[in-house]
Amino acid sequence: MRRQLVPTVVTGAAVLGVVAFSLVAGAPVGNAAARPSSAYAVSGEGQLPINKTPYVESADGKRVSSSALELPSNPLLDVRAGTVTAGNNSASVELIDLSIGAGALGQIPIPPDLKKQCDTLPPTGAGDLPIPDLALPDLGLPLPPLSLKDLPVKNLPDLCKLLLTPPTSLVALDAVNVWCSAGKGGVDIGSLTLLGQKLSIPTTSQSFSTPANPLISLAVNQQTKNADGSFTITALTVNLGNGAQILKFASATCAKPVVHKPTPKPTTPKPTPPVHQPPAAPQPTPVKTHLPVTG
Amino acid sequence: MRRSERGSSSIPALAVLVILGVVAYIGIFGDKSEEPPPVDLTLLSASSTQSTIATAPLDTEPYATTSGAVVHPPVETALYTAPDGEPFGKIAPQQFGPTWLPVVDQTDGWVRVLLPSKPNRSTGWLREDGLQRAASSYLIRVHTASRTIELFEKGRRLGVWKAGVGARKTPTPAGRTFLLGSIVDHKRSASPIVLPLGAHSPTLDTFGGGPGTVAIHGWPRADVFGAAISAGCVRVPKTALAKLQRVPLGTLVLIDNK
C-alpha cells in the first residue's frame, strides 16, 4: 500500500509544481502599466476623423520614433512635419508649421450692407454698434451653420477688420515641442496665432485656454493623470463649431516603465557636498582644425 | 513485475521536480551570483559629432537646466542605456579638444550625460568611477523666435545679443545641448572661430561634407544678426563670440522656440 502511495504522491507534487510554475511564469513581468508610453502628432474627431498620425508606442520600454505623418486630403489643416518618439516612461513630439483653415476667412463674401457699415464706421462709439446677426457664409470647412455673431470678435470694428483684412488662417503655429517623463511634462510652443492675433503663452508648464466660442477655441498644454498611473500631455487642442470637430496636436503619454531588472531610481543632480566640490571647469583652448558646420 | 512498473512511473515525475528546482534556483539566485560581464569596447560605436547611435536613450527633460556638473572621460569609456543597463556605445577622451559632457542626471555610481552623436537629444549613462568631474557656472540660452542668445554666469546674465538662427526649412534644433568644442577653422577665413555644439541640423543629414553639426560662430556682416537665415548654426556678433569663447566645454546650451 505504502509502495503504491510513493509514486502517486511524487506525481501529484510534480503536477502541482508545474501548475504553480506556469502561473508564476505567466504572470505579468514587472509593473507594466495598462497602456504603454505613446506619442502622436495629429488626431481628429468629428466630421473629419483623423487617426493618430504618426503614432508610436513603446510596450517594452525600447525607444521608437517616427516621422511618417500622413494626413487625409482635406481643406481644414496642413502640417509640414512631425516627429514622435516614445520610450521607457518618456515620450515627445516635435511639430513644425501647422495651419488650420488656411485661406478660409479670405473667401467670405461680405454682405453689401455690412461692407457699407464697415466703410462708414463713426470715429467714436463704433465699439458699441451691434454685430449683425447674419449667417456666416460656408467656409468650406466641416462646421455647422454659424452666424457672424459667432466669430470671436468683441465688436463691429473688430469684425470689419477681420473680414476686410482677413488673416491667412484660423490658427497658425510655427513650431511646438511637447515632452513628458515620469509624470511630468512641458510644452515649448513657438508663435501661435488665432485669427491672426498672436497668443501669449505663459510658460512651458502651465495650461492655457482661449474663451469658449462657437467657431473656435484653443487649449494649450492640457495635462492629465490617467487612472492607470500614466500621464498625458497635449500641446494644442482645437475645438471647432462647439465640438463638431476636435483636433489634437502633439500629444505624449508616459507610462510606468516595463521593468526587466531593477534599476536604481535616478535622482536629480544635487550639488556635491563641500568636501567633494568639483573644481571649476577649465576655459577651453581653441584647437586649429576644420569642421564643416551648418553655417 | 507490477511493482517494478509502478516504481518506474515515478521517475519522470521526479525528473520534472528536479528541473523545476534547478530553474527556480537559477531564477532566484542566478542573477545575483553573476558578476557584470566585462565590456568589449572594440565592439561598440564611438559617440562623436560624426556618428549616429540610434539606440542611445533620448533626453527626457530637453528644456531643463542642470547643476552645471560636467565630466571628462580620461580614457575610452562605455555608454550604457541605464544604470546597470546594456552598453550601447563608447565615448573617447578627445573630440576636437578634451571631451567634456554635461551631467543631466545621476544616481549612485552613475551619471547620465548628453552626447555629441546623432540623433539630437542623445544621452548615455557612464560609470562615475574614473571620470574627471568639474562644474561650469555658465549657461547659454538661444531663443529662435526672438533670435537672441543669452549668456549667464552663476545665474547672472552677462549679456544678450541678437543672433542669426536657422531659416524655416533648416531650423536650429530646439532642446538642450552643449558646447562640444572650441576650434579655429582657417578654411572659414571670414569667421574662423567656431564653437561646435552637440546638436545637428534636423533637416540636413550632411552639410558641406560634414555631418550637419550645429555651431555658434561669427559672421562678417551684421545684417544676419536677428534673422532666421542660417542652415542651423547660430551666428553671433564679435563681442558675444569673444565672451562665449571663454565658456568651458560641456556647458549647457538651451535652445527654445521663444
TrEMBL record, chain A:
Organism: Kribbella sandramycini
Superkingdom to which the source organism belongs: Bacteria
Region (Disordered): 258-295
Name the UniProt record assigns to this protein: Uncharacterized protein
Biased composition (Pro residues): 264-285
Automatic annotation (TrEMBL), chain B:
Keyword list, A-Z: Cell shape, Cell wall biogenesis/degradation, Membrane, Peptidoglycan synthesis, Transferase, Transmembrane, Transmembrane helix
Domain L,D-TPase catalytic: 138-256
GO BP term, example: cell wall organization
Molecular function terms from GO: transferase activity
Transmembrane portions of the chain: 12-30
Pfam family, one: YkuD
Protein name stated in the entry: L,D-transpeptidase
